[in-house]
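Hello again,

I reread your note about wanting to compare the complex against the isolated chains. To keep things tidy I'm splitting this into two emails, and this first one only covers the full assembly. Below are the input lines as submitted, including protein chains and any nucleic acid or small-molecule components. They are followed by the predicted structure of everything together. The single-chain runs will come separately.
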Amino acid sequence: MNPFEEKGMPIDKQMLAWSELNTATYDPQSVHPYTRTRGILMNGIETEAVFFYHNFHRHAQDSDLRRQLSLIRRVEQQQQKSVNWVIPASETTLEVTIGYEQLAVDLTASMAKNEPDPYVKAALDFALLEDFDHLYRYANLMLDNDPKKAEAIVNDLTEIMPGRPTIIEHRHPFDDVRRYAAKDTADILTKLHIATIIAAEQQTMNFYMNVGNRFANMAGRALYQEIAMIEEQHVTHYGSLSDPTMSWFEMALLHEYCECYLYYSCMKSETEEPMRLVWQQLLENEITHLKMINEIGKKYEKRDYSEMYPKEFPQPLILESNKEYVRDVLAKQFTYTGDGTEMVPVNKAESRQRFDEYQNAVNTGEYVPSQQVIADGIVKYGKDYRFETNGNHPIGILQGRDSLPGREEIVNVP
Ligand SMILES: [Fe+2]
Ligand SMILES: [Fe+2]
Ligand SMILES: [Fe+2]
Ligand SMILES: [Fe+2]
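Full-complex prediction:
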């Protein structure tokens, strides 16, 4: 499919009545995990669209242009509502959180496997291990506070066990800034992966920023805070991959193309018919946005940016199980950290001093929430909670379930 050549839904038909906007919720007992995670992803994509267009508008002088942006943005807001409102109230914040981290794992891994640029692939693999660890930490928090176990949510598609332990994910802010992928030479798939993961991680960051203080006990409030700070690092890490020399019009077109591509991908892979119809309708909306923005670009910048796009969509982005892939990356990159723009083992980092200083500033004393949540579980249940379906943990010091390695032990793993 080439979205530039599709008809789309006329913009004046895109505004929905309240009754249409208040989408039917899914059944949390029977929903497919990747239907839940597609919803989380597309909510993040729409949220990014809304904030991007607010920023564009605040940088635009021409009132006609500002009105066009206001029109498209109003629809983006409605789309965000229809997508995010499929989550039922009966799903707790922590259950939704498990969905967020499952998405982070399987979205990142699915993209990394197909990413043509080795540096961007390395960046995806790098943060993959961190979100994989978040899933494990939250799953342990769940034991105490939620009757449900996390494995009922991930449903055998994603393992739950330690990744790169959160305690060593805290890096100096300078070491999260990567090099950017130049827009004129990057593959379209690379650009789409970058745009997608920025929005997804940003949504996770926003979510924890807002719901982290809704947790009833101190252990949970603290864990959300700590992981929310890593999501800030992830948004920095991925945000820096995006080419900053794009014009506002060029960025808008990439946003719309990415929305089209992702709804097309959702439609191709959706197993639940009511959701497939939602994706299809939203794709129709996006095709029109894409064409409108392309016309706006021609008018204001005298450029037809559609020339930068292929005649056909690249292969669709399909969420799938990546257990062996994650284990493989974990075995290879367990102790990695940021080293300027590069990603290397902590022990080989030239920025090691900076790493230690930052670590000492945030991980002072005995108390690190992501460690504490596991230690508390060991005291209470004799061992941590895991859902290992494919054998022992690939890292020796993490195979024992009744003890918890500290920072020094972790960074010294060869
Ligand atoms: Fe949208
Ligand atoms: Fe995460
Ligand atoms: Fe993340
Ligand atoms: Fe859009």
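For quick reference: The mean pLDDT is 96.

B.
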